[in-house]
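Weekly sync, protein design subgroup
Attendees: M.S., D.O., the rotation student, P.L. (late)

Item 1: inverse folding check
M.S. brought a backbone from last month's batch and wanted to see whether the design step gives back something sensible before we order anything. D.O. pointed out we never logged the input encoding, so this time it goes straight into the notes. Structure tokens as presented (65 positions):
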């Protein structure tokens, strides 16, 4: 029994690490969705990342105005 004495503390530490990684992942995902960004800010971000081209950016920006 004494040979397995290290098992429980190790499993608890691994569990806490997994929990922390999950919490961080969820907070980042929610941060993007609930940041309160306006449609114009989101459009600017997509353009900056190269997800849309100049023509698409101009068209959508004009629609927002």
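Designed sequence read out in the meeting:
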């Amino acid at each position: 029994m004494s040979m397995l004495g290290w098992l429980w503390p190790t499993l608890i530490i691994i569990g806490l690490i997994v929990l922390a990684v999950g919490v961080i992942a969820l907070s980042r995902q929610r941060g993007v969705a609930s940041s309160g960004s306006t449609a114009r800010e989101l459009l600017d971000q997509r353009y900056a990342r190269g997800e849309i081209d100049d023509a698409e950016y101009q068209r959508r920006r004009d629609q927002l105005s």
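Discussion: The chain has a mean pLDDT of 86. The radius of gyration is 23 Å.
Action: P.L. to compare against the previous round before Friday.
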